[in-house]
Amino acid sequence: MTIEVHGQQLPAGYTIEPASCSVGYHVRHNGRIERQDRKPRTFATPDLAEDYIRQQVAVAITPTEYQQAALRTLYPDLTDKERLGLCGLGLAGELGEVVDMLKKFLYHRNGKPLDMNKLKDELGDVLWYYFILLDTVGLTFEEVMQANVTKLETRHANGFNPRYASDSHESE
């Protein structure tokens, strides 16, 4: 399927294809899945489904692009030690806001739906501090993801096992 986003075709190498389920999709770049949606969704018409996919693809950004954008907004004269403090305190504060939102949604039982826009904003703030921290310590998002997948494969070589003693820290 050829798709245009904001009047422009997707960049070279990008394709959109239906996922294995009829309501999902994959966005591929040079054959590698970069974005996918497996949530069950129904659309009244194929045009509405295509509009939804366009919106999702329009917000696609790579970790490197995000990090460059975040670094543009960082105080330029901070030392590494100051950046570490900023990121540590900032992550704790922003994660606290996310946790508070979830707590209120789950336990205050006021009948209000979870405010997804506010949650998205707070998670974006978490990302900002996380990516600044990565830059400060000289790691990339891809390195952290790969290290985590390797750790998970070591711990759960055959997939999830409810009898795995994950809190024993034996595998660390």
Task: Describe this structure as you would to a colleague.
The chain has 172 residues and is mainly alpha-helical. It has two domains: 4-60, no CATH class; 64-155, MazG-like (Helix Hairpins, Orthogonal Bundle), CATH 1.10.287.1080. 51% of the residues lie in helices and 12% in strands. The strands form two sheets. The chain has a three-stranded antiparallel sheet with strand order 3-4-5, with no helix packed on it. Helix 2 packs across helix 4 and helix 3 (80-107) runs antiparallel to helix 4.
CATH class of the largest domain: Mainly Alpha
Oligomer kind: single chain
Low-confidence stretches: 1-9, 19-23
Q: Per the principal axes of the C-alpha atoms, what is the gross shape?
A: extended
Count of alpha and pi helical runs: 5
Residue share in helix: 40-55%
CATH superfamily of the largest domain: MazG-like
Q: How many discrete structural domains?
A: 2
End-to-end C-alpha gap: 45 Å
Features:
two-stranded antiparallel sheet, 172 residues, 2 domains, disordered N terminus, 5 strands, 3-stranded antiparallel β-sheet, extended, Helix Hairpins, mainly alpha, single chain
